[in-house]
Amino acid sequence: SDQLDSHDEL
Amino acid sequence: MNIFRLAGDMTHLASVLVLLLKIHTIKSCAGISLKTQELYALVFATRYLDLFTDYISLYNTLMKLIFLVSSFSIVWYIRHHKIVRRSYDKDQDTFRHYFLVLPCFLLALVINEKFTVKEIMWTFSLYLEAVAILPQLVLLQRTRNIDNLTGQYVFLLGAYRSLYILNWIYRYFTEPHYVHWITWISGLVQTLLYADFFYYYFQSWKNNVKLELPA
């Protein structure tokens, strides 16, 4: 999934 | 990844490790709210559903595992460990935290970025995390004095979210499309909840007196 779509923060 | 976020994650990790250390070494959970720990376990369980589906980085996956394992083991310790459980003061830890779960879930159904199961669970975990500390703050209010480790635990938790706010500001100015109002507002609410605790924590630290929260 592209970076922006999925949440990359904890 | 930026320094604010890394510092935030490390502070968050420290808060959990301080708590685990306290419970494991002195075999006591005096002053700790089981309800807050249960809420945190639920926060991680609902936020990290994508643990095995979306691989972002080794760091991301590793930290998610650490947070999941540590939060659930803290709950296990307080509920089932034969020595620790005796120090749990269930008569004082009476905040009806289930009343927090439903409104957060309903709010997540209404206000979210995308109406998908994963996104709604993720948004729910954000709202829940904002209020998860309430049972702990109420318990601190009740028991008046708090021991150092508990104070440090709450302090580190508040500090981690404050660092995340700096991270969001940094990302907003450095990444053109980075806009997550829901995250920002719930993170801000969460930090404000800690603000009064911070005030008294610093007062006690400055005057070198034991922390006393006003009734």
Automatic annotation (TrEMBL), chain B:
Principal cellular location given in the protein's record: endoplasmic reticulum
TM spans (from-to): 55-78, 98-115, 121-140, 152-170, 182-202
Superkingdom of origin: Eukaryota
GO biological process: one example: protein retention in ER lumen
Recorded topology in the membrane: Multi-pass membrane protein
Protein family: Belongs to the ERD2 family.
PANTHER family xref list: ER LUMEN PROTEIN RETAINING RECEPTOR (PTHR10585)
Protein name per the record: ER lumen protein-retaining receptor
Organism placement in taxonomy: Eukaryota, Viridiplantae, Streptophyta, Embryophyta, Tracheophyta
